[in-house]
Design goal:
Purple Acid Phosphatase, chain A, domain 2, 6-stranded mixed beta sheet, 7 helices, alpha/beta, globular, 247 residues
C-alpha cells in the first residue's frame, strides 16, 4: 500500500477578496488516477480527508483516470461523497486520452459540476464566488475566451489542469489559479527532475506561488502513474486545503 495522502493547509492572501469570503475554505484534489497504480483505499482515504476539512467548496483539477476506458466506471464510485457546498471540476490530459465525455459523465453522476471552458457562480456566505474552468490545454481542448465569457464579477477562481503562468489570466480578473498535473515530480531527483519538467514547459512543480500578485497553487495530487510510488522532496500525495484571506 503506498503512503497515504496528507492534508496540506495554506492561507492564501487574495487581493480584492470580498470581505465575506475571508476565511473561506477550499479543498483541492487532483490527479487521482484511479485503477491499476492507485488503490481504491488510497483514494477513499483522500476523500475522507477532504470531507473532514469541512470545506465551503471542493475543487477537482483533472486526471481522474490513467490510460484505460475500463477505469472510467471507477471514477463515480471512488470519488463519491465529497463534501463542501459544491464540488467543481475540470478535466485533464489523461481524461481525454481515455474519454473526456465518459469521465465528465462519471463525475456528473455524483452531482459534481464539470466545467469545460465555462464558468459557474456559487453564493457562498452571501457573496458570489465564481469558478472559471479552462479545459485541458495539453490535448488542446482549452478555450480561455469561452471560459471567461459571461463570468460574473467578484471573486474569481480559475481551475485548469496544466500549471501555466497565471499572469495572463489575471488581466481577465482571476485572483487565484488552481492546477495539478505535476505530481510534484512523483520521483524527484535533485537537479534532474526540475530540469526535465522545464524541458516540457513546466516551471511550477508544486506549492503556492505569488507572481506579481497572481496566486497559483499547484497541488502534488493524490494518485500515481507508471509506478505506485512517490519519492523525493515535495512529492507526497496530498489533499490541499486553501483558506482565502484578504490581502
Amino acid at each position: 500500500m503506498p503512503a497515504a495522502a496528507v492534508v496540506s493547509e495554506h492561507d492564501v492572501p487574495i487581493r480584492g477578496l470580498d470581505p465575506r469570503h475571508d476565511g473561506l475554505r477550499i479543498a483541492h484534489l487532483s490527479d487521482v488516477h484511479v485503477g491499476r497504480f492507485t488503490p481504491r483505499a488510497h483514494v477513499r482515504a483522500a476523500v475522507a480527508l477532504a470531507v473532514a476539512a469541512n470545506p465551503d467548496v471542493t475543487v477537482l483539477t483533472g486526471d481522474y483516470v490513467c490510460w484505460s476506458r475500463t477505469e472510467i466506471p471507477l471514477v463515480e464510485d471512488w470519488l463519491g461523497g465529497l463534501g463542501g457546498q459544491r464540488v467543481v471540476a475540470v478535466l485533464g490530459n489523461h481524461d481525454y486520452f481515455t474519454s473526456g465525455r465518459g469521465v465528465a459523465a462519471a463525475l456528473a453522476r455524483n452531482g459534481y459540476d464539470v466545467l469545460r471552458n465555462a464558468s459557474t457562480t456559487i453564493d457562498v456566505r452571501g457573496a458570489p464566488l465564481t469558478f472559471v474552468g479552462i479545459d485541458d490545454p495539453i490535448t488542446r481542448h482549452d478555450d480561455t475566451d469561452a471560459a471567461f465569457a459571461g463570468a460574473r464579477p467578484g471573486t474569481r477562481i480559475v481551475l485548469v489542469h496544466y500549471p501555466a503562468d497565471p499572469r495572463g489570466l489575471v488581466v481577465r480578473g482571476a485572483q487565484l489559479v488552481l492546477s495539478g498535473h505535476t505530481h510534484g515530480g512523483q520521483l524527484n531527483v535533485p537537479g534532474v527532475t526540475t530540469r526535465m519538467l522545464r524541458r516540457v514547459g513546466i516551471r511550477f512543480r508544486g506549492g503556492l506561488y505569488d507572481l506579481d500578485g497572481a496566486r497559483l497553487y499547484v497541488t502534488t495530487g493524490v494518485g500515481f502513474v507508471g509506478v505506485s510510488l512517490r519519492a523525493g522532496a515535495g512529492t507526497a500525495a496530498e489533499v490541499a486545503v486553501l483558506t482565502l484571506r484578504r490581502e
